[in-house]
Amino acid sequence: MMGTWVAFLRGINLGKRQVKMAELKACLEAAGFSNIKTVVASGNVRLEAEGKAEAIKTKLEQAIAARFGFAVGVVLRSEAELTEMLAGHPFGTLDPKADVTRHVLMFDQKLPSGMTLADRPGHTEILRIDARDIYIAGYRQPNGRYTEGVEEVLKPLYARLDKGVLDTMRNWNTIEKMLA
Fold first, then answer.
1. Reduced to 3 states, what is the DSSP secondary structure of residue 106?
2. pTM
3. Fold of 2-81
């Protein structure tokens, strides 16, 4: 059965790992995916595909590696999963006047159950941890940056995860555009 999927590519358009969105779209069309739409030039792709998530993820990673000459990890979400993520309003508790940036850190597999992370109020806050997603608010700091404290807050999580766990972070504004 054909379904709508959203693929978040990790680590493209950094250094020598350049991928033009028009070339990515052509690559994925050639691999048999349809109704492809890229959103922002950081590797966000909505597409239609037939099959199960793991097979689609593998097919995407193989097609991209074959075309561009380097491996790219893909964090995949179904349309239903993304709809549920958006409907959950994970940032609803934030002060609408706060100078804050909203991000979601997405993983390709389930996080350890009962995972908690100590946040830094007014700096880097963990708003919610779901099975494969962590919702993060980064407050503007005196130096003008928002997310430089994220790595420190996430250290205990990465200490518990296997080395092969794939993750990628996206600005919530991008997530909101993915199904539009």
1. strand
2. 0.94
3. Alpha-Beta Plaits (3.30.70)
